[in-house]
Amino acid sequence: METSNILANNPNLKSWVEVPANSDFPIQNLPFGIFKTRSQSERVGVRIGNQVLDLKALYVLGYLENLPFEASDFENKFLNDLMGKGKKATRDLRNHISKLLSHDFEDLKVNQHHVDQVLIAADKIDMCLPVQIGDYTDFYSSKEHATNVGTMFRDPANALLPNWLWIPVGYHGRASSVIVSGQAIHRPKGQIKPDPTQDPIFAPCRNLDFELETGFITYEGKPLGDSISTAEAEDFIFGMCLFNDWSARDIQTWEYVPLGPFLAKNFASSMSPWIVTLDALQPFKVASPTQVPEVLDYLKCDADKSYDINLEVLIEPKGGSENLICESNFKYMYWNMSQQLAHHTVNGCNIRCGDLMGSGTISGPTPNSYGSMLELAWKGTKPLKMNDGTERKFIHDNDTVIMRGYCEKDGVRIGFGEVSTEILPAK
Ligand code: MN
Question: Does the predicted TM-score (pTM) go above 0.85?
């Protein structure tokens, strides 16, 4: 679908809603989420600055006429019904909201009585899981990450397995345990083998790790048996979020042979609450790394398909302050989202509205850009120093792990907010 008609991306737009300098949410962003208040049930919101636009209220007041949406699309526990209307409809909706919020357009701005009903301070609401996730797939698409893991656990000379440069490797994850930022989780328990020469024991995970990832959310795909090409793939992507794919490394080491991740991964994965539309990200498109050997035809792309998204990870011990431990970028990804989606469907597998695809851990080329504790502390051999003097090889109880991300170009900054999760002691 043509992207030159995305009026909401105009870098010159200014809003009559106050947007603080360096906000993740200028008028050029307008991400979608689900929120609730003490007195009102779940509904669709669009974030601008430190305010949230209530789309249900906006609809009731008649500001969303001539768009193919109904009240139930906006007063809803999830974004699925809204996304179910398709890419053209959601693009038109974002363009229309941009107009309503823009400085040069008077309809809403001059009606303070209405403004009071549709704008709510972001610190007065609770954010909810934005999508009813049907299926969750996680990829393994960062060459640096795969190389680091292969170097640590197998053979530095043959760190990448033979299929890695040919296939965007992935596995089917668990949708039921995907949670929204702010929800704490307990340290998982399971079978671990602290002494490799002894039998396994049942105990709380000792090597709890995060994975710095992004996720993308799909529109309804094609019927079972059909495939989505790399050229079509972005038409099937609604937007992106930050994604922490929690991993119990010691459980993983023992269980993963021969079928791959299971209980080491399915106890929780955390996502940020605001879905930044792929439309909003178009100005930040960049080339992916050169692929050698040349990929098979169905994985070739005819244009740039990656995005320049700065990513960071912080650890905040309870009662302490934030420690920045990782700075990476989405653009390092060897396999882009279009290739992931083309590969996922090349065998005829169907995707549905509200599926979640994880990028895989996004590690960059330098040691401070590695996207997991496993790599940052190099299997526990290089502990990270916190600013309170303590050390981390993996994540401790009562640590909060925070991920943030943003794009910046030509004076426009589009951010994702954050995904933040506290680790409570094992139950
Ligand atoms: Mn992962």
Answer: yes
